[in-house]
Amino acid sequence: MEFEGCNCFRQRLVLSTLSGKRVKIRNIRSKDDNPGLRDFEASFIRLLDKVTNGTRIEINQTGTVLFYQPGLLYGGSVEHECNVQRSIGYYLEALLMLAPFMKTPLRAVLKGVTNDPTDPSVDLLKVTAIPLMKKFGIDGDGLEIKVLKRGMAPAGGGEVLFTCPVRRSMKPVHLTEPGKIKRIRGTAFSVRVSPQMANRIVDSARSILNKFIPDIYIYTDHMKGPCFDPTDSNLYFSSLFQGGCVDSTNQSLSLLYMTLGQQDVSKTLLGPLSPYTVEFLRHIRDFFQIMFKIEQQKPGEDEQKGGEKVLMTCVGAGYSNINKTIK
Amino acid sequence: MEKKEQKRHQHKHSGPKADKKNRKKEQGTEPERDERKRNPRAFSVQSAVRMAKTFHRTQDIKTKKHHIPLVDRTPLEPPPVVVVVMGPPKVGKSTLIRCLIKNYTRQKLSDICGPVTIVSGKKRRLTFIECNNDINSMIDLAKVADLVLMLIDASFGFEMETFEFLNICQVHGFPRVMGVLTHLDTFKNNKTLSKTKKRLKHRFWTEVYQGAKLFYLSGMVYGEYQTQEVKNLGRFISVMKFRPLVWRTSHPYVVADRMEDLTDPEDIRLNPKCDRTVSLYGYLRGTFLKNKCQVHIPGVGDFSVADVSFLPDPCPLPEVIKKRALNVKERLLYAPMAGVGGLVYDKDAVYIDMPSGHGSQQQEVRPTTELVQSLIGTQATLDAKMAASKVSLTCLMFSVLIVRKQNPMESREWDERAQRERRRAVFADEDDDDDDDDDGDGEQESDEEEDEEEDDEEDEDEEGVTTLKKHDKTAAETAAPPVKKQKCEVPMEMPAFADSDDELEKSEEDESEEDESEEEEENEENEEMEEGEPAKKSSGPDSGLCSEDDDEDEEEDSDTDEDGDGTVKSKMSSKHPEEENIDTDDAEMGYETAGALRWKEDLAQKATEAYLRHQLAAPNLRKLVYGTGEHINLWDDSNDEEELGGLFKVNRPEKSKKVRADAMDCSRFQPDNSHDWDQEEVRSSIRDCFVTGKWEEDKDAATLLKEDEELYGDFEDLETGQVHKGGNDDEINGDDDDDEEEEAPQVKLDDDEVQKNKRLEKKRRLKERFDAQYDDGDATYFDDLKEEMQKQAELNRQEFEDVDDEIRVQYEGFRPGMYVRVEIPALPCEFVTNFDPHYPIILGGLGPSEGNVGYLQMRLKKHRWHNRILKTRDPLILSLGWRRFQTIPLYYIEDHNGRHRLLKYTPEHMHCGATIWGPITPQGTGFLAVQTVGGIKASFRIAATGVVLDLDKSVTIVKKLKLIGYPYKIFKNTSFIQGMFNTVLEVAKFEGASIRTVSGIKGQIKKALRTPPGAFRATFEDRLLMSDIVFLRSWYPASVPQLYNPVTSLLMPVGQKETWAGMRTLGQLKHDLGIRNKPNQDSLYKPVVRQVRHFNPLHIPKELQKALPFKNKPKQMQAKGKTPRDLQRPAVVREPHEKKVAALLDALSSVYAYKNKKARAEQHAKHKEFLKQKEKQEAERQKRMKEERKKTYRAMGQKEKKKLKSSLKGASKDN
Questions:
Q1: Which residues are CB-neighbours of B1033 under 8 A, at least 6 positions away?
Q2: Coiled coil located at which positions (chain A) (predicted)?
Q3: Can you tell me the distance from the alpha carbon of A51 to that of B1177, in angstroms, rounded to the nearest whole number?
Q4: How confident is the model at residue B566 (pLDDT cuts 50, 70, 90)?
């Protein structure tokens, strides 16, 4: 399959790896002043090479053309130095998609930037992606994201451990009831500033959240590092406003797992589709010939649950993990 | 099969039994009821241990019955059941199919060619396929068969093909197998018949399962099996149930029953060997088929599908089930390859199957105007469209094939009959039986057989002739069979005009009045339009422009289009899918109004409903995501694709596009900051997301509590005896009363209903709660799982039930049971030119990444009936998944430490591992291996079976390698060793490696020596000898040759399809080329020469000699040496005188000797005489003496007697 531009770079490579279809991406930043692949993308390709066996990658001299022939997902113990241009979340998102389909359980240590404003932070993935994966039947002791060290932008130095067991196939899910929020837990962290800063963040967040629910506990995590992240509770609200059963960063993850399920109907209620997810849906159609039935649900009149929701329905591709060894 | 009149049971009216019964009747049923009480000892616990054991056993049996529950994915309208009729040649396969078809449809099909689909019952269709005696066909059909009718010539017994086929089935998931014994009329002796039946049955049972169904077809009547027997068999087939098989439920497949070549004829003219575009038709089976997916055609190769579309079912089930049986019109028969298909609708054409005589005159049904319209509406090139819309001369081609095939087949069989060696399967344990049978009437049997065979041949000759005659007849005039075909065309939803059109066409050609006919045609059309679709003509241009309209317009357009398109499907491939769907809907509606339609009456209504719903429910999101392409961005700007005058697109400047193509790759959804969360109203918009917010009606805590009260409100205070009633109870009662009062007024009916619903809801809840409580103990994990699966299955069915098919196939893919047309580009031309409908064409869908190639690790076992072991690196043909391919396996065995050690040969009776380079296939898939597919060389062709364990891109097999060296200098425990390596570097790599001598002394490599190169110092646990050989055991990674060679048997010329030969094995190559390796001279056996043993003389020490007694002392007996010369006597030389004297003396002495001799002889004779005399005298003397002695003894005896007497007397006197 052929694509143009580095848009949706990760999606394409991940889906190619899962579907076994080779991919050629041309004109990567060809009109840019600094053409070709960036360092973080190269680092991402290297990570893919580490978790697979028999992958063939060809990049031309300028780095504007990439040919990727996927091998088989191998897994095992992997240690990767992530490029600091993007946070670990960038890499972890892709690994989350691949991890259940490896030959041996994955145990990845990713080093780099743990939190930055562009990518979903490691903490966010930890609290959202892991429960989501459990819904698809990926559970057990092995599933875990652990922040060993925190690291901030220019220097990096953070460390995250991600372990995931392997599965033969995904379970179909029906996540149509978002449920209610019972309690709020959070983490405020500060790096190389006064520990008081963290406490002040917690206070300000509580003041707003308390208007909804009293059961709030926010952990503080103080580390030595270059800067701190002003977590905003308003962000939380807007994601709530948009949210369905799955939050916006994990939309594509849940859609992928639905696609790779058995040949049964899966349903998930999502918030409004992010552009990233829309691209992802198109790519799923290209790689797996799976189309989702997309139904918009208007919020009820007397219900005050935020914005519009979208009900995604699909029949799984009947994908089974071809990498796992049977004895 | 005849039923015997059985005697009915007679009730006893008198006697002890009757008395007992009467007594029981009088007493009532009490004693029966309470067996436990009546006989308590029988039910008491005798032994706890035994009870535990029995409990365990019952539990074991229970759990053994459990299978892992699977989601039931069988479609509502399942595809026809594939019935494969299999058996060695001349066993009666075609006859059986013919009989079954006649049984089901009352139609006669003279030639079985390709799959034949029939409607066998109200809910079942069958596809019959005949399996010819070719291992390729056997393998392919075993993969798609739902039911196998295994024909066995009882007069001969089992043949190897039967067992081979069973083994193939076993590997690829066992379909249902039913044995059918034929040629039973050859047995004249009833006893042998029953004996044979029994023997065959038991053998069949051991192979399939105990109690497998075996049918007996005794005797033929007019070249057909007996009607009653065929009917019975048919009944069994139509009630048979099937188990889902793993491979088939996870892969879509199509057994093609029709093939059309769509290649541009011009291309073929220019290059007859150009790649062909072919469309294949058939029922989709297995699971959902996605458009643009990859398929494998066994015998051809891997292809990606260009297009899939579904067509109206050519052989539909009756739509209403009211009647008890099918009427004649509903008993359809569809076999396009055999020339029975009637009318076939395609995407862009309608094919009519004409009686074969008129094949050349086939015409397209589409009126001329329609053709023009379709051309206007196209966007592809004219040539291509013309090619696609051309009439295909299917019927003609087939009929030609049939005729050509018929003759050689017959003749060939004649030859075969004389030559063919049947591959009888003889089993050791059955030999005796056979012998027994043979003893009885072996000769007779064989005679009978021969007779029978001859008869058969004659019959078939006659048949052949008749069929040929039929063909001739049909060529000359439309005779009986075509009429029948016409009959089966009638229910094919043929629009009325199609028929008439045809007739018109014929008449036109006869009269050659084209103008008039055209007018007539047009008239016809107009009539049609008036009947069904008024605005056919207007639809054309609309559809042409539609694709360029923007989204909203499109929808509106489609509204107007709804009444647009006509009966005949014009080409609208360029259109938006949704629109197409509408078109087809209309078309269907059109058919219905035409009156000849019989399937899904309310489909049109459904479709319109669905459409309306769709319009309401799904606004633009679907289109925005999947709609017109990748370049729509939802959140950017909706004016992205602005158009000028609805025709021209604004071409964006290059730069902006590129920017989007290289956009930031980030999953984070930056929230819009339109909401200001500090405001109360905005904040309240998400209030209900928290537990503190408002709950839904059915989940609100207050209402739940209330309901609880309703359920559990009633209770009695035991202490006080006061009864409390639930709060609502009174109300409800009151309501009930009210209901009774208010029954009459209609206004309150709603209220009533609400109440009723409430009550029902309450009941349901109560029941649920009760069930939950009651079943809690019994509900196992298994039950939960089963329930979950059932729910899922229901959801699967319901989710897309009311969505229109055209949309539905996009979501789900094409679902099994649909009749699909699959277009495949770039097929090799041999597929078309060498097409033979007798060989099955299967389209096997491949899952994601199953089209790739990699290393496969599998567990393999040589088949115990294959009489040779397999050699590593000998090419082997594997049947794995859908594929048949040749590859080079490497066999290995796993050592205790997990090492995969290469084996030279497969073990004899054990599993081993095998690694091949082949197509990626999911783990757990079974496979079988054969050495060749061409001809029958081995006695049992299936060489090995096994299962795929693992897939990888690298291999882990190692080969044992022993490096040998010799010591050249030995110190104490240190030795210098040479000959093992060649350079210092090599040694350096092996420093520290352990080495060993043949005699078992272990050691270690220490350090390389400078000279000679490759020598090294090593230490050992003991001192070596110069004669010791030192070796280093190492493991060398073996590489698997990357050979993946699909068996392209379908591309072989007609008649040579079973002669595909791939790569030859080394042994075959050597045999064919006459190469013989010179053996190692040392390995040859030579005659054993034994040396004569030579013993040294015994040496006794002097001391010992001295001590020995004389007897044992070695005697000093030297051998007498030569007498010295002086002691030798000299030779005497006589004088002549002396000679004379000596001669005289000699003469005298000889005279003397003669005299002496004579005298001695006389003397001897005299002595003899004397001895005779003496003997005589002696005898006389003896005689005399004997008498003398007799006398004296007598006298003595008498004396003794007297004495005794006297003494007795004396004694008596004394007494």
A1: B960, B961, B962, B996
A2: none
A3: 131
A4: very low
* pLDDT computed for residue B686 by the predictor: 59
Per-residue pLDDT tens over the stretch B1001-1050:
999 999 999 989 999 999 999 999 999 999 999 999 999 999 999 999 99
pLDDT confidence band for B1181 (50 / 70 / 90): very high
Sort out which chain A residues have CB atoms less than 8 A from B672's CB and list them. 238
- Smallest CA-to-CA distance from B88 within B214, B196, B180 is with B180
CA angle B873, B875, B879 (to 5 degrees): 125
Cα(B673)–Cα(B809) distance, integer angstroms:
40
Interface mutation target, options A17, A209, A315, A327, chain B, most CBs of B under 10 Å? A315
Query: Do B367 and B522 meet the contact criterion of CB atoms below 8 Å apart?
Result: yes
**What is the CB-side half-sphere exposure of residue B1089 using CA atoms within 13 A?**
2
In chain A, residues with a C-beta closer than 8 Å to the C-beta of B295 are: none
CB B331 within 8 A of CB B325: no
Neighbour tally for B688: CB within 10 Å: 20
Element (H, E) at A288: helix A275-288
Tell me, what's the pLDDT at B293? 86
At residue B627, the pLDDT reads 66
Residue of chain B minimizing CA distance to A274: B669
Q: Of A310, A146, A122, nearest to A229 (Cα)? A: A122
**Mutation site for B-interface testing, chosen from A53, A83, A291 by largest number of B Cβ within 10 Å:** A291
What is the 3-state secondary structure of B632-699?
Answer: CCCCCCHHHHCEECCCEECCCCHHHHHHHHCCCCCCCCCCCCCCCCCCHHHHHCCHHHECCCCCCCCC
Beta-carbon separation of A293 and B811 below 8 A:
yes
Least Cα separation, residue A46 to chain B (angstroms): 17
d(CA B558, CA B546): 9
Q: What is the pLDDT of residues A231-270, one digit of tens each?
A: 444 455 555 555 555 667 778 888 888 888 888 888 888 8
pLDDT in tens, B375-428: 333 344 444 444 444 433 333 333 333 333 333 233 333 334 434 567 777 665
In sequence order, the 6+-apart residues with CB closer than 8 A to the CB of B586 are B533, B561, B562, B563, B564, B565, B566
Backbone angles phi, psi at B104, to 5 degrees: -85, -40
- Which residues fall within 8 angstroms of residue B271, CB to CB, at 6 or more apart? none
Nearest-neighbour CA in chain B from A197: distance (Å): 22
Q: How many CA atoms within 13 Å lie on the side-chain side of B671?
A: 23
**Chain A: residue nearest B921 by CA?**
A322
Cα separation, B939 vs B737, whole angstroms:
87
Interface contact flag, B799 A71, Cβ < 8 Å: no
Query: What is the sign, positive or negative, of the torsion defined by CA atoms of B573, B575, B581, B584?
Result: negative
Exposed/middle/buried for residue B886 (C-beta within 10 Å: 0-12, 13-18, 19+): buried
CA distance A68 to B1090: 73
Give residue-wise pLDDT tens across range B1111-1155. Answer: 888 877 677 778 887 888 888 888 999 999 999 999 999 999 999
Cβ pairs bridging A and B (under 8 Å) = 234
Q: What CA–CA distance (Å, rounded) separates B568 from B586?
A: 10
Rounded to an integer, what is the distance from CA A252 to the centroid of its chain? 8
Q: Which amino acid is at A73?
A: L
Reduce the DSSP state of residue B517 to 3 states and report it.
Answer: helix
CB B662 to CB A93 under 8 A? no
Does residue B919 have a cis peptide bond before it, meaning omega lies within 30 degrees of 0?
no
Give the single-character DSSP code of B815.
P
